[in-house]
Amino acid sequence: MQHTISVLVVNRFGVLSRISGLFSGRGFNIESLNVAETNDPNISRMTIVTLGDEKKIEQITKQLNKLVDVIKVVDLTEENFVDRELILIKMNAEARVREEILRIVEIFRAKVVDVGPQTYTIEITGSEGKIKGILDLLRPLGIKELVRSGRIALSRGIKSIN
Questions:
Q1: pTM for the whole thing?
Q2: Taking a C-beta distance cutoff of 8 angstroms, is the pair 71, 10 a contact?
Q3: Distance (Å, rounded) from C-alpha 145 to C-alpha 38?
Q4: Rg (CA), the chain
Q5: Strand partners, 92
Q6: How would DSSP label each residue in 106-144?
Q7: Confidence tier at 28 by pLDDT (50, 70, 90)
C-alpha cells in the first residue's frame, strides 16, 4: 500500500542525506520526495511517498523519529488530507495536433506556459488521478519531455503537525 509521510526536520545541511540514507540502508524505496522550507526558515517539511505494509511503515516511522534533526513524523495515509503534484510537460506541437492539445489543456484546467515553433510546455497541478488522466490523453500526441515535482500534502481542517 502507498503511504504519504510528512516529516518536519531542522533545516540544515545533511538532513536530506541522512533521511534518504535511512531508507536506502534498510531497503525501502522512496516513490516521491519533496522538501522545502516551511513558514519558519529553520524548519523544512518533507513529504515522502513510499510503499509498504503497516509493519514496514511503522518501522520507517520509528527509525525516522530516532534521527536527531527530525522534529515530527506523521503518516498522513490514515488521515483526511489534501495532496497535489505539479508537472511540466513539453509537447511536440505540430500543426495537426495543436488544437487537440489546447482542448485537453482546457478540459484539465492546465496552462500553456511556453510556446515554441514546434513545442508547447504545459503546467498542471492536481491529484494523482488528474495527472494520470491528462498524461494518458497527451501521450499519443507526442510528449517530448516531462518533469514532476513529487507529491506534497497537508492534513485537512485545523489539524497541523507544527
A1: 0.85
A2: yes
A3: 30
A4: 19
A5: 119
A6: HHTT-EEEEE-SSEEEEEEEE-HHHHHHHHHHHHHHHEE
A7: confident
